[in-house]
Amino acid sequence: MEPDETLHTIEKAATWNVNSLKVRLPQVLDWLAREKPDVACLQETKTPDGQFPVQAFHSIGYEVVFAGQPAYNGVAILSKFPIESPETVMDRSEDDHRRFLSARIQGVQVINVYVPNGQDLDSPKFSYKLEWLDRLGHYLDRFTPEREPVLLMGDFNIAPGDLDTWDPDGTRNQIFHSEPERYGLRSLFSKGFIDLYRKIHPDTQAFSWWDYRMGSFHRNRGLRIDLVLATPPLAKRCLDVTIDRQIRKNDRPSDHVPVTAFFTS
């Protein structure tokens, strides 16, 4: 794909695993009205395509594309700008899990992912997670990171490093922290994708997810698994990345919170 020479006017891009759009729709609409991201990627919408609340988003000025299924998975991209050439699959693999969505917005390729959880290291779901990451890597090979503006956002279900987990020693060989998972994530970094939060905040421990159980949020036992990655043309324009911890205090919150990247125009 040739780089687009148009002005990239995305100044605010966010990702949020909403853990059921049906349950969280009022919170999502309130957040959009308050924060006004130019582009937002949602995961775990858990909404079949025929029931997606398109009009609710149109009514507050957002275009939307989505790929959903009942009760599980589901992704959506919201944009204040026209959305072009949406893709709902990475490849020709027979995989009916709706975890991937890619589209062109204002000259930027925006990719929304909900990486498989993996369950535990002995589960077939863990092998599927590693395979899925490998497939994502092959999809990304079509881009030229040094020249093309690409945003890769979503719930990666991997804590990149020790600063991204509340207990780095105790969790080292557990799901979300294992070396095979982190190797898969580093393989995306090696393709030219930069973790914007860690670029801006190299020494800060911060989390985007807390388990509902065991008072994890109040004890701040969390993980940073919701990431905004970008190729160099966008990374060099990144001003800041924030994690909206406050929203986790809502009634009936998602277990994840929004992560937002800010860019110069």
Automatic annotation (TrEMBL):
Cofactor: Mg(2+); Mn(2+)
Site (Interaction with DNA substrate): H256
Cofactor, free-text remark: Probably binds two magnesium or manganese ions per subunit.
Keywords: Hydrolase, Magnesium, Manganese, Metal-binding
Site feature location: Important for catalytic activity: D226
Residues at the catalytic site: Y114, D155 (proton donor/acceptor), H256 (proton acceptor)
Domain of life: Bacteria
Record-linked Pfam families: Exo_endo_phos
Residue span(s) of domain Endonuclease/exonuclease/phosphatase: 14-256
InterPro entries: AP_endonuc_1, Endo/exonu/phosph_ase_sf, Endo/exonuclease/phosphatase, ExoIII-like
Protein name: Exodeoxyribonuclease III
